[in-house]
Amino acid sequence: MDGTAVAMMVESRATNPVLSMIEASTGPRSDLSPTPATVVATHNPFPHGHHRPDSTPSHSETFPAGGSCDPPGVVNPIEVFCWTAQSRRRNLVVPPLAAMEGTTMRTRRIGDAEVSAIGLGAMPMSIEGRPDEARSIATIHAALDAGVTLVDTADAYHSYAGEVGHNESLIARALAGYGGDTTGVLIATKGGHLRPGDGSWTVNGSPAYLEQACDASLKRLGVDAIGLYQFHRPDPKVPFADSIGALRDLLDAGKIRMVGISNVSPEQIRQANEILGGRLASVQNQFSPAVRDSEAALRLCAELGIAFLPWSPLGGRSVAGVLGTRFAAFAEIARAHEVSPQRVCLAWLLAKGPAVIPIPGSTRPETIRDSAAAAELALSAGELARLDAS
């Protein structure tokens, strides 16, 4: 997606009874300091590839300047209070790391691949405001520990003109240094979007460029074939059929295993699937409580057996941090389940059908663990109806 990662949920001290209880026994938590991330440096091969769409990342959190949310290691679930320079924080109940390692998550399908029901959107690890590499790698490893087997990236996820493919290279290093098995991880990347380095996003859907971009992504990811290669955004200057035809050629040549498209209409979904001979594997469109205009695309994907990957599933930076305020039903249901509104949001999206696989972004281990836990959150029919109506 293009642009900005999502902000953290803000919760006031006065409305946080758990914080009050902790402070009563331990004192105010304003002295919380981050714990350095640990990166496992052993090598492990990986076979696939992954991505995210246009300029707004499908990301579950971005911390304002001055915030910290790295808890000390513990053996029981912990209440994590993420403080910002303005003394704001997102409240998460996160399973301890030891409890997450080796976790198997509920799965869904993209083409012939079985992947976790919640993916990881890696875009915010490489664009403006990105964290340092150690924290990014720790976040990717935390996602894998939590059972995430879908990682979304793109060659356009970078900040400066001279670092095209920054996100893909980061993911390759993270997977190579992971201490566990990565053979089941699907890396989904994209081509067709460009960042000249001036903050803008441009497009190039020409067949020659897409082939060149795919070859470069193959090298950065260190794979023989990209697991899922997605056309990032239609180019108004290039016939859509020509762009999709280029992806068909890459598929037939064995350079990619599956084809996806992003930021498209139902008509374009049908056209792409026809050009590909029924082999379109995924569609990635924006979908969140704030943006629901892809309902028709979602229904069509379900009808055709195509995976639907919502990008910016929490609404982007302007919405995610105030999700529970702007959409009160999400906060109310979150309180009833004693989870974050963000987790409720992802569970709501999952309930829209087995074709849906949200890809929330993250730049911290705690938030991707919270997002991954949405796969186990069951919402009642009544709760889902309230969320649909909110």
Structure overview:
The chain is of the alpha/beta class and 390 residues long. The chain has 14 helices and 13 strands. The protein has a single domain, classed as NADP-dependent oxidoreductase domain (TIM Barrel, Alpha-Beta Barrel). The protein has a seven-stranded parallel beta sheet with strand order 5-6-7-10-11-12-13, covered by helices on one side. The chain is globular and about 55 Å long. The two termini are 25 Å apart.
Fold blueprint:
Layout: H1 17-26, E1 78-81, E2 91-94, H2 97-100, E3 107-110, E4 113-116, E5 120-121, H3 133-145, E6 150-152, H4 166-176, E7 186-191, E8 193-194, E9 202-203, H5 207-221, E10 228-231, H6 240-252, E11 259-262, H7 266-275, E12 280-284, H8 295-304, E13 307-308, H9 317-320, H10 323-326, H11 328-337, H12 341-350, H13 365-372, H14 381-389
Parallel strand pairs: 5-6, 6-7, 7-10, 10-11, 11-12, 12-13
Antiparallel strand pairs: 1-2, 3-4, 8-9
Helix pairs in contact: 3-4, 3-13, 5-6, 6-7, 11-12
Protein name: NADP-dependent oxidoreductase domain-containing protein
Region (Disordered): 41-70
InterPro entries: Aldo-Keto_reductase, NAD(P)_OxRdtase_dom_sf, NADP_OxRdtase_dom
